[in-house]
């Protein structure tokens, strides 16, 4: 498991993109639809995924080989908030760790089965 990106919800994607890209000089890496984009700092650090969902919690997004396997064997004390659910190319699950922080776990497995 490694950190893939930091999930940053926003109420205004255009304003957030303007801040990171135009004011901080970060590079826009990709977009998904009209509500999601990823940026990275000039040093090539961890990506920041901006998502127009002001009700979501920010948090680290970890990548694993298979979310379904992680979900079945997740550590004790981890509360399931959502998923696993299909996303383009794989699955996403959202958890709350014992200290209260939200974390996201994704894969690009394209599994056909959700348990």
Give me a quick take on this structure.
By secondary structure, this protein is mainly beta. Helices cover about 15% and strands about 45% of the residues.
Mind explaining what this structure looks like?
By secondary structure, the protein is mostly beta strands. 15% of the residues lie in helices and 45% in strands. The chain is built from two helices and eight strands; from the N terminus they run E-H-E-E-E-E-H-E-E-E. It has helices at residues 13-23, 67-72, and strands at 2-10, 27-32, 36-40, 47-52, 59-63, 79-87, 90-96, 102-106. The chain has an eight-stranded mixed beta sheet with strand order 2-3-4-1-5-8-7-6. Strand 6 (79-87) and strand 7 form a beta hairpin. The longest helix has 11 residues, at 13-23. The protein starts with a strand and ends in a 9-residue tail after the last strand. The relative contact order is 0.20.
The first-to-last residue Cα distance is 20 Å
In what range is the share of β-strand residues?
over 45%
Shape: globular
**What is the helical fraction, as a range of percent?**
10-25%
H/E element string?
EHEEEEHEEE
Q: Kindly state the number of beta strands.
A: 8
Q: Report low-confidence residues grouped into runs of 5 or more.
A: 111-115
> Number of helical segments?
2
User: What structural class do the secondary elements suggest?
Assistant: mainly beta
Rounded radius of gyration (Å):
15 Å
- Sheet with the most strands: spatial strand order: 2-3-4-1-5-8-7-6
Largest sheet: 8 strands, mixed
Rounded average pLDDT? 90
């Amino acid at each position: 498991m490694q950190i893939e990106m930091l999930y940053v919800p926003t109420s205004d994607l255009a304003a957030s993109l303007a801040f990171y890209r135009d004011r901080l000089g970060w590079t826009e890496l990709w977009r998904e639809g009209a509500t999601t984009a990823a940026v990275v700092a000039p040093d090539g650090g961890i990506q920041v995924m901006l998502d127009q969902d002001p009700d979501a919690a920010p948090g680290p997004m970890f990548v694993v080989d298979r979310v379904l396997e992680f979900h079945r064997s997740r550590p004790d004390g981890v509360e399931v908030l959502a998923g696993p659910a299909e996303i383009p190319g794989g699955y996403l699950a959202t958890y709350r760790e014992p200290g209260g922080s939200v974390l996201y776990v994704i894969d690009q497995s394209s599994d056909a089965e959700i348990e």
